[in-house]
Amino acid sequence: MNLRASAILIASRQHGETATIARLLTEDHGLVAGYVAGGRGRQLRPVMIPGNRVELELRAKSDSQLPFARLELVESRGPWMTEPLPAAAIGWTCALTATVLPERNPYPALYQALDALLGAVCHAPSARGWLSAMNAYEVLLLRELGYGGDRPEAGQDLDAMLANFDRLEGAIARYLLADKRGDVMAARHFLRERLGRMTT
Predict the structure, then answer these.
(1) Distance between CA atoms of 186 and 148, rounded to whole angstroms?
(2) Are residues 9 and 34 in the same domain?
(3) 11, 38, 141, 187: which has the fewest C-beta neighbours closer than 10 Å?
(4) Are residues 37 and 108 in the same domain?
């Protein structure tokens, strides 16, 4: 696989002493993974934040080989990772996406929706400005992976949006995460706890 594309970094894990394995969502190629030499080094550490928008170059000698990835930062979500609620929202959304999507299947609608959601999380004045987009993204994810999913009920007040968020949890746990390793739902529970503080 050899490609150049805009991408959203959705996961990064340590590989060896200084490298990382990055998982990225692209519009035309879906979820792809690549080996990032020096990904844990001082120069690339700010680039390897989940949610960041990057320019990606992947190169591999064969389809069976993990490609080498070069990333160039386009838009950083780093400043919002120090804010508890945006950080929880970015963490949950990226973890869910990285866990449930199969590799190399294009989902252009999901790519566009994720990019819009992350932008809203970072730039809206509060969760009231992005929680309905979060609900819509989760429904879109269910639909794109073949599990249907009811559209969130209308209503832009916080209580209605939280009710929609709570209603989606069962379908996500049952259909998307039933056979997945790791407790990805813990990230959603953490986000819900943070959202609950807005109503107290």
Answers:
(1) 23
(2) yes
(3) 38
(4) no
**Number of folded domains that form the chain:** 2
Report the CATH number that the domain containing residue 84 is assigned in CATH.
Answer: 1.20.1440
Question: Helix H segments across the chain?
Answer: 84-100, 108-123, 131-144, 158-171, 185-196
- Which CATH number do you get for residue 28? 2.40.50.140
Task: Please report, to the nearest 10 degrees, the dihedral formed by the alpha carbons of residues 70, 73, 76, 81 taken in order.
Answer: 30
Query: What is the distance between the alpha carbons of residues 114 and 178, in angstroms, rounded to a whole number?
Result: 22
Both tokens of residue 65?
């080989």
In terms of domains, do 72 and 85 share one? Answer: no
Buried b (16+ CB within 10 A) or exposed e, 151-169: ebeeeeeeebbbebbeebe
Per-residue pLDDT for the chain (200 aa), expressed as one digit of tens each?
A: 689 999 999 999 999 889 999 999 999 999 999 999 999 999 999 999 999 999 999 998 877 789 999 999 999 999 999 999 999 999 999 999 999 999 999 999 999 999 999 999 999 999 999 999 999 999 999 999 999 877 766 667 889 899 999 999 999 999 999 877 568 999 999 999 999 988 75
- Token pair, residue 27, equals 């519009």
Question: Which residue segment(s) compose the domain that 171 sits in?
Answer: 79-199
**One-letter identity of residue 103:** E
Same-domain status, 69 and 121? no
